[in-house]
Amino acid sequence: MTRATDSRRSQRFPIRMPLRFRVSGDGEWRQGKTVNVSSAGVFFRSLLSADCGTRVEMNFILPSSLAKDSGLEVACKGEVVRLEVAPGAEGQPSIAVKFSDYRLFPLVPGRANRQDPFGSAKAEE
Prior knowledge:
125 residues, mainly beta, Thrombin, subunit H, 44% strand, globular, disordered N terminus
């Protein structure tokens, strides 16, 4: 018999990095901080939340352990699949997003947080 928490298929990595997200089609970016990241999605905290089923766009950095200013910028789209408000989480909602699409870009200092990585003027670098 397996527990519900064991049914997750993707290994989660405890990465704590700033994240920005917005409801798809909305111009206003919201701030958050990752709790963990997997190949299937991201779990993060934010003062502002989004309802389950909401389509969102996100940007965050996956740091490299090799060098201080290296890593990958992740630009992704997904759907909110879980929302938690738990005591001890500093009153911030925790949001789980399942990826539907993502792009990885080499981290270039001073060029993080691309404005529209999925738009028609996207840069393939």
